[in-house]
């Protein structure tokens, strides 16, 4: 058996998220269906670096699987892309050691959230950016974002139903990239809890619109209670941008 | 009755084209459904500058309709956008003289065709650009495009089933805009026949790939026979970009 790491990209608009669910179209299900075909019906389990929700996109999701097939890396790529639907693309296939694990070995992730700051609807962006038509104070948002940097218990900033117990995470970077009418928020950290990026964005929007003050953030972190943070921003603006591994993987 | 001109944009991916067809989702049908609601069930006829096919997009399609409602222009815009589906957007509503006609008064149009020159599939571009993974000789394409400029009988460059009899059209401009991996072909002319832009693009791709020579174009125009031109390029790369009227409209 050979273990393969794949970097994949998908347009989340047409999927009920990454993970397999009964009677739903998911990314994992499409990948496993194609791998089963290539293995004459034998099921092949695909393991992702983590889930993404319905409507959330990926520019660089990472998965792994094992196969007895002796196919060079580039041919895997061509074969998978020829069988996968148009809204999933395999960007790279890399042979890895049998010990590699897409989830456990990831030591960091980058997410981006794209806001379209405009009072005019753009039909071409409806699935790919979250439109925000009101004024935003970028200076206050940047000030607020600094309180999230470093290591914190992010209980207030994840969905109340999150199953993971350990809610301490480290955020290294929050960047603000303004280009034309688009504001992209770039988050780099060692891991993100369920809905965490979307709640961070919702909270930063509350600060930017004047509903919340930057100085309130430390208090919200301390509460360890989802109800004190901002709203969960919509899925359509969120991209899993990159998953980070040690260099030899 | 007041006549209104509207500039609209739509993502063609989810539509069976612009024009009403039984049991199909079309742009005109969505517009007329919303206008009927605003007029308490009375039907309001919408007239477009021309049709667009299934999958073809519009950045600046123009339509007109008449209404007895006394609503200021900006309120029309807000009302229509609040009721229309997310893949159609009204960019402007302008009061016009009762003699204005979106189709008959249009003296020119601009179409753009977007090619994504890459061997890698991009799931986010699948509906918005036509991927072309083979080498292209841009110099030869530009040379060929010059034969299309000016006034010609474009019978060879429209779908064989085209009903319009008069097939003489004038193309003013064909521009080549290269940006990153995207090649955008910009066509400006006094009018375009059914499938004409897509067949022009297919023919230019045949030249760029070496299957046809630029000097063959005049002969193909003379044949007045669709079979001698190149293939019809896919709908997903095509955008009705702008419709031109006299300044006071």
UniProtKB/TrEMBL annotation, chains A, B:
This protein's record includes keyword Isomerase: yes
Binding site for substrate: 111
Catalysed reactions, semicolon-separated: uridine(38/39/40) in tRNA = pseudouridine(38/39/40) in tRNA
Start and end residues of each Pseudouridine synthase I TruA alpha/beta domain: 8-105, 144-246
Source species, domain of life: Bacteria
Subunit comment: Homodimer.
Function: Formation of pseudouridine at positions 38, 39 and 40 in the anticodon stem and loop of transfer RNAs.
Taxonomic lineage: Bacteria, Bacillati, Bacillota, Bacilli, Bacillales
Principal EC category: isomerase
Pfam entry (one): PseudoU_synth_1
Family: Belongs to the tRNA pseudouridine synthase TruA family.
Molecular function as annotated in GO: tRNA pseudouridine(38-40) synthase activity
Catalytic residues in the record: 53 (nucleophile)
Protein keywords: Isomerase, tRNA processing
Protein name (database record): tRNA pseudouridine synthase A
Native species: Bacillus salipaludis
Gene that encodes the chain: truA
Enzyme Commission designation: 5.4.99.12
Record-linked PANTHER family: PSEUDOURIDYLATE SYNTHASE, TRNA PSEUDOURIDINE SYNTHASE-LIKE 1
């Amino acid at each position: 058996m050979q273990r393969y790491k794949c970097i994949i990209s998908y347009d989340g608009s047409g999927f009920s998220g990454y993970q397999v669910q009964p009677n739903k179209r998911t990314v994992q299900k499409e990948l496993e269906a194609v791998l089963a075909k290539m293995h004459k019906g034998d099921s092949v389990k695909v393991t992702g670096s983590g889930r993404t929700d319905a409507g959330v996109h990926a520019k660089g999701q990472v998965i792994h699987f094992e196969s007895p097939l002796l196919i060079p890396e580039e041919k895997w790529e061509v074969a998978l892309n020829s069988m996968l639907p148009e809204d999933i693309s395999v960007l790279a296939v890399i042979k890895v050691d049998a010990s590699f694990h897409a989830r456990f070995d990831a030591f960091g992730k980058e997410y981006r959230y794209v806001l379209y700051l405009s009072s005019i609807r753009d039909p071409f962006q409806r699935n790919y950016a979250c439109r925000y038509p009101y004024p935003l104070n970028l200076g206050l948002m940047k000030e607020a974002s600094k309180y999230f940097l470093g290591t914190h218990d992010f209980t207030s900033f994840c969905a109340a139903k999150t199953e993971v117990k350990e809610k301490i995470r480290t955020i290294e970077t929050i960047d603000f990239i303004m280009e034309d009418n688009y504001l992209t928020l770039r988050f780099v950290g060692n891991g993100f809890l369920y809905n965490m990026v979307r709640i961070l964005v919702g909270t930063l929007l509350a600060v930017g619109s004047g509903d919340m003050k930057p100085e309130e953030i430390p208090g919200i972190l301390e509460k360890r209670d989802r109800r004190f943070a901002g709203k969960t921003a919509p899925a359509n603006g969120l991209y899993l941008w990159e998953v980070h591994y040690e260099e030899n993987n």
